[in-house]
Write a structure and sequence with these properties.
globular, mainly beta, 4-stranded antiparallel β-sheet
């Protein structure tokens, strides 16, 4: 069972939970799931949750994001469509299209109206919500598995361990293309809150911390996590950065969650095992609520995707002492 003080969301998705995202304007949480649905929940100060709205894709929903002003939710799915839900009107419309499933969807930090989508069709496309056609398309070396945006930085992790970096001042040109520092398939990428680098997680129970600037390359490092005493190795399914401190969480197929400080290279907090794979995570805008989904992550294939699998979204009240960076003797930058 989850920690007793963590609260379960009311009416969670009945099928695999693929992504979680909080609004940056209020404590509203959006969740995408394999039952084709996007669900939106209001999280009250007591930790109670109220289902507020939902809308549908025509196939499993794989990713979700909020507009910066908190008025719209966007999502991508295996129906090859990007969809937008207007919170005020309750209407959803298609706003993006690819030739294969959309695995990543993110609003650019610079504009309310522009978003990026990444697909298994090996492209990233940029969309202005006022136009039905993409305003830019970039060919990638492989299928998109994960992507993230922070300030001017967009990081796209693809199949075959490619990592493609974009400077969003020049979004249709690849800024840098590299190979993951990890030896096995990329599962997740997540940008530092200041946009100076990113964390990357793989199926081999390992995380890489990577800086963009050439002068900072000596600060790059990787570490093992989500492994057990019997030397079993588990997938790192998601990495979420705290919005204030820049510390971060990892969650894994081993059923555990850990908070980390990359600057002091320390583990800050370990959660007890949830007895179910942790598929995805998210901090709210102030970083005092941490949401995590106990849900099958497909790391063992379709044979373990049984109807009896747990699907829960849990809310953890974050103690400042559990997520605040630890002081170390090195110069902090």
């Amino acid at each position: 069972m989850a920690a007793t003080q963590d609260m379960a969301i009311t009416s969670p998705p009945p099928d695999g939970i693929s992504d979680l995202c909080f609004s940056s304007q209020a404590d509203y949480l959006a969740a995408s799931s394999w039952d084709n649905q996007i669900r939106i929940y209001e999280i009250q100060p007591t930790g109670q949750s109220i289902p507020k709205a939902s809308y549908s894709h025509e196939a499993p929903a794989l990713c979700v994001d909020w507009s910066k002003d908190g008025t719209k939710v966007v999502s991508g799915g295996a129906d090859k469509a990007g969809r937008m839900f207007d919170v005020a009107t309750g209407q959803s419309t298609q706003i993006a299209a690819h030739d294969d499933a959309i695995k990543g969807i993110k609003f650019l930090d610079q504009g309310q109206q522009v978003l990026a989508t990444g697909s298994w069709d090996k492209t990233v496309k940029y969309w202005d919500l006022r136009s039905p056609q993409p305003i830019g398309t970039v060919q990638l070396p492989e299928r998109v598995y994960s992507m993230d945006i922070r300030q001017q930085l967009m990081v796209v992790g693809t199949a075959d361990r490619h990592v493609v970096l974009f400077d969003l001042n020049n979004p249709t040109t690849i800024f840098k293309q590299t190979i993951s520092p990890l030896k096995w398939q990329t599962r997740t990428v997540s940008c530092f809150i200041d946009g100076t680098g990113y964390a990357i997680g793989s199926i081999e129970g390992r995380v890489g911390i990577q800086y963009i600037d050439e002068k900072d390359q000596a600060r790059n490092f990787s570490f093992k996590c989500h492994r057990d005493d019997a030397k079993n190795v588990f997938s790192v399914n998601d990495i979420s950065f705290h919005p204030t401190y820049g510390t971060f969480s990892t969650c894994g197929a081993d059923g555990t969650i850990v908070f980390w400080d990359k600057d002091s290279k320390q583990r800050l907090k370990s959660f007890s095992n949830m007895n179910g794979t942790i598929a995805c995570t998210a901090f709210n805008r102030s970083g005092n609520i941490f949401a995590y989904a106990i849900s099958y992550d497909w790391t063992k294939g379709h044979k373990l995707a049984t109807p009896g699998n747990t699907n829960q979204i849990m809310l953890h009240s974050v103690l400042d002492s559990d997520i605040r960076p630890k002081l170390n003797n090195k110069t902090r930058r």
